[in-house]
UniProtKB/TrEMBL annotation, chains A, B:
<keyword id="KW-0805">Transcription regulation</keyword>
<dbReference type="InterPro" id="IPR028082">
    <property type="entry name" value="Peripla_BP_I"/>
</dbReference>
<dbReference type="Pfam" id="PF00356">
    <property type="entry name" value="LacI"/>
</dbReference>
<feature type="domain" description="HTH lacI-type">
    <location>
        <begin position="2"/>
        <end position="56"/>
    </location>
</feature>
<keyword id="KW-0804">Transcription</keyword>
<dbReference type="GO" id="GO:0003677">
    <property type="term" value="F:DNA binding"/>
</dbReference>
<dbReference type="Pfam" id="PF00532">
    <property type="entry name" value="Peripla_BP_1"/>
</dbReference>
<keyword id="KW-0238">DNA-binding</keyword>
<dbReference type="InterPro" id="IPR001761">
    <property type="entry name" value="Peripla_BP/Lac1_sug-bd_dom"/>
</dbReference>
<dbReference type="InterPro" id="IPR000843">
    <property type="entry name" value="HTH_LacI"/>
</dbReference>
<dbReference type="InterPro" id="IPR010982">
    <property type="entry name" value="Lambda_DNA-bd_dom_sf"/>
</dbReference>
<protein>
    <submittedName>
        <fullName>LacI family DNA-binding transcriptional regulator</fullName>
    </submittedName>
</protein>
Length: 329, 329
DNA sequence: ATTCGTGATGTAATCGATTACAATAATTTT
DNA sequence: AAAATTATTGTAATCGATTACATCACGAAT
């Protein structure tokens, strides 16, 4: 790979002139520009981002932190981020943190070292303290999950309201024994969705029963199955289940079927996220739709603004309850 | 963010000594090491990758090119890559190329510019010519999809044999009218799997009927539905379907159900990839299992070897036909 | 006491770009 | 035609690290 020196030599000019051509400075003569451009062409030269970044302290790269690539919830968000980034001349790099602090540390360092210009964090398990510290010096946005006590701008939905509506929908269908499959309440979204669940129950004077609330640390299908297995073992089986994630709900559906029970006749089921697979199950899954693509776009917009030192405000986007077969009697 | 100069000043030593401490050179006195380490501590200093990379021409970053993050097929492979990379002191960056040459170009440049040390490409739609050109100078490995005419080392499975076995399994069950849902035959895997399909039919003297071969450009569920709709419209309906991807098969299953037909009684179904969803459908999906995690590990191992200038040979891993409910009569 | 050897540290070049400032060439003004 | 002005281009410092080589200090050998 040729460097700027060789181009300069070949074109018979100084490196400064080559750099000016590269950066489209208007002061360069058409003739010299041509010379340089031919030299670039002939040497197949491409400027080194390393040298450039070191000098400019800018990489035009955005980091997107996700806990796990296997969660389909993130795919549409990422598409939104990517489209917006590219429109603005940025590129994104996906970072699968596996909720591992050590990996996170590496990605944090990439920003400190100017290898990236900013971070969009979607990892609920991120070290909030570290993230807040980093955010004092570097552009950071949180997407979906955020720190209520922190000062980092975020884009999300009203999780409590969404859960409330989902459970209210079940209550309106006549259900009185409604279970909750929740994830780890270390996470804000889990706490908020539980609050929404309880809010709905209280509003209709239904008791909140611990035996119908199941917590799981993982979001994979199998954990939904496991959750449902437990719930079916309770002395009084629930007639409806609200799950805080589609993947868990799909696992639950599988388990319900395995017990020769039917959805929605025996047990109604509501998920959360509207992942594409939720429309492929039989029955199709009632779920809460988050505007994922828009969320991604908004997050990217906010980050880019922040990089340019503009002020940004947190955003709460609308959600929607998508009623499908799993709650249609 | 402090730099090495400031640390040197604070510690009362030269930058060379600081660098020596950072790189654990044995020649530094315990006393000076301590001085430097305290200074690093106090200034909260972290060495800049940019400066280091520029000097060392090494980033210890690997690029992983995937066409789309939404395809669950890649998740386990990526886990394998990531685990292996980290064990060897490398980190990975996921690049969602969207099969877009312009985006690819950016990622190719990152390697040219030493922002990354090598590439694992999993994009079937990658510009093979460019990739081959790049591979003459930079470490590149192909995973899953590869260029049969090129010289880039790859890791994959025997796609033709796998397809042959899948279709033979259907024939052994007594099926004579077997359809194929294939993806774009620009891709090698699609051509190979079709070859396996035809090989099995020929071996058992079954005619190859164009009406039962459907091509689709996308792998999302909806395209599987669309494919199946077409196949059900043919004058003579197939009694079995082999789909080159689980996502397409799951879409097909949905469509079959929508027509009030049953799997496997009316139509048997075989997918490919053993994605985690394929065990959540009802009935569960017979599919071809690729050793995805191992594939990822192998690819990462090969790439790291290549970065260290060792010779690497292409690898063909074993596959397995996983028989589940969708072909159990 | 002088010389030598060894180990610890410092000096300065280097990687590949950008850019302030200097220098030169081209043009206009008088 | 000489001076003044302006348009191009070149020189060299800079970003933050690494490292070959130079230097220095100190103890051992003679």
């Amino acid at each position: 790979m040729a460097n700027i020196q060789e181009v300069a030599q070949k074109a018979g000019v100084s490196v400064a002139t080559v750099s000016r051509v590269l950066n489209q400075h208007p002061t360069v003569t058409a003739k010299t520009r041509l010379k340089v451009e031919t030299a670039i062409e002939e040497l197949n030269y491409e400027p080194s981002m390393l040298g450039r970044n070191l000098r400019n302290s800018e990489s035009r790269l955005l980091l997107v932190l996700i806990p796990s690539i296997s969660n389909p919830f993130y795919t549409e968000i990422i598409n939104g981020i990517e489209d917006t980034a590219i429109t603005n001349g940025y590129n994104i790099l996906l970072c699968d943190t596996d909720s591992n602090p050590q990996r996170e540390h590496i990605y944090f360092n990439m920003v400190k070292n100017k290898l990236a210009d900013g971070i969009i964090s979607m990892d609920p398990a991120v070290d909030m303290e570290k993230l807040n510290g980093l955010a004092m010096q570097y552009p950071i946005i949180q997407c979906s999950e955020y720190d209520e006590k922190g000062t980092i701008p975020y884009v999300t939905i009203d999780n409590q309201l969404a859960a409330y509506r989902a459970v209210k929908h079940l209550i309106k269908l006549g259900h009185k024994k409604i279970a909750l499959i929740n994830s780890d309440e270390r996470f804000l979204y889990a706490r908020e969705r539980r609050a929404g669940y309880e809010q709905a129950l209280r509003e209709f004077n239904l008791p909140i029963q611990e035996k119908w609330i199941y917590h799981t640390n993982h979001l994979e299908f199998e954990f939904g199955q496991q959750a449902m297995r437990k719930l079916l073992q309770t002395d009084e089986k629930p007639t409806a289940v609200f799950s805080v994630s589609d993947t868990l709900a799909i696992g639950a559906l599988k388990e319900i079927n395995a017990h020769e029970l039917n959805v929605p006749e025996d047990i109604a089921l509501v998920g959360f996220d509207k992942i594409s697979f939720s429309n492929m199950t039989n029955p199709t899954l009632t779920t809460v739709s988050q505007p994922m693509y828009k969320m991604g776009c908004t997050a990217a917009d906010m980050l880019i603004k922040k990089i340019h030192n503009k002020d940004v405000e947190s955003v709460i986007l609308d959600h929607e309850l998508v009623i499908r077969e799993s709650t249609m009697g």
